[in-house]
Amino acid sequence: MSVTSNVARLSELESREARQVDAILHDLEQLEAEPDLDRVKQLTDELAKALKGAKRLEVATRRERFMNLLKGKLNAPASVFDAALADAGIGGGEATESAQGQALAFKDPEPWPQPVDGAALLEDLRAALADYLVLSDQALDAAVLWVVHTHLYDAFYVTPRLAITSPEKRCGKTQLLTLLERLVARPLQTANVSTAAVFRCVETHRPTLLIDEADTFLSGKDELRGILNSGHQRGGSVLRTAGDDHEPRAFSTFAPVAIAKIGQLPDTLADRSVAIAMKRKKPTEHVRPLRFDRLEPLEELRRRAHRWATDHRSGLGQADPEVPPELHDRAADNWRPLLAIADAAGGGWPERARRAARTITGSEDDDLSVRVLLLQDVMTTFERLGVERLFSRDLVAALVEMEERPWPEWKAGKPLTVRQLARLVQPFGVSPRHLRIDEGTGRGYRLEDFADPCERYLAPSIRNNRNNALKSGVCATSGSVTAGAPVTDRGEAPKPRKQGLVTDVTDREGATPPDDDKEVVVL
Hints:
By secondary structure, the chain is α/β, with parallel strands linked by helices. The chain is 47% helix and 12% strand. It is built from 19 helices and 12 strands. The chain has helices at residues 3-29, 37-50, 56-70, 77-88, 91-99, 118-132, 137-150, 173-181, 195-205, 222-230, 267-270, 298-317, 329-345, 349-366, 370-385, 392-399, 418-425, 451-457, 460-472, and strands at residues 161-166, 187-190, 208-211, 237-242, 247-252, 257-262, 273-277, 389-391, 433-437, 440-446, 499-503, 519-522. The strands form 3 sheets. The chain has a 5-stranded parallel beta sheet. Strand 9 and strand 10 form a beta hairpin.
């Protein structure tokens, strides 16, 4: 057969295939507004087979035509077309699949065949982590309790986030996430994630999210932080519209999440977390090198955890464990599932879990938000000076003398100002008021104004000291100032003052209003 004949035959073949593709597309175009899905599947399968061997550009243009024809008839025509290409083993389909990533696959572990002793399981999990990581005893205990909770988190009302933080890189955060990946239920580890990916994945697969390198992408993503916050408790969800009709749909966000980050998590996320603080190991500290290809023995532990969780799910869902009184409300919510697991496991774990809760929560309280830190320092200043009232300028002068605090270099290297102080305490319901102290008048603060926020926001140990001072009258009413008092903005130490409350004083500090505008209560 001549070359001319071969070319003619090939051209005829291509023309016949093109006509077949066009015929199928015509049939798709004739489908009603709500087509029979079996008919859609049949035609899409035929189209995919007809495109076998076609060039990538041909496949791409036919895909675009398919999407346009079925727009408004199917919710996701592109997904249907791509699935048909993949089933047909077409190169174009493989290219599309690769360009759109790989489908997620989750598989629950095969349960351990025999009943599992809870205390022994926790000990073995702890030993496995301790082989590879340098962590405190309390951090290890918290981590293994969190691992078990992922296998039955939906039995609880809250799933605490596991906040894995360190001051610098190379402290073992990624290693811990890698170990967790082999132990938790339905793990999904990622070093970056979008808002939509989180709620769609949670809704579809109910994974345990293991998020690494959060310091590289979490900052400034308020919507993503909101999603991670909402998934802290059962019923957490987001509303989005779906389909061509933009129907409002609720997507669940309730799922276990571990987040590894250099530095601290945002306050609202940290408040919903159990903290695991990691440090770089010393040269004298030795652990087993982590070989990612030799972690199969951990699968046995995961199977045992799955079996124990299955056997204890119903009872744990009704558990109401005793929570250490030192824990504030949100910390109690975070630790309640872990304490319930420890109580059910028995042995020494009930006490160990509560010791970990007290220790870790105490460390979290030490890491105060800037407003709570300011509240603490304001109360300290009132106590140190032995007064119940201070002008704003004198309180600020005292704060900026605290060298280990942020106040001396609050903004752009400049010290805290009177106006900035007012803005910081305003969310506590505290505002400067008009005061008379000695012969001067101006805007300032009373010690009693801070009593309510002190009770609500300071750590118990600090709060008790402040309350004792208020109740016992340690703060004098004479206005005397202790030795070593701070220097004011005029370069002088504040003088002892008689104190009283003045209303209707002008905003200008030091100004005295006319007598008929003045009401003075002398103490």
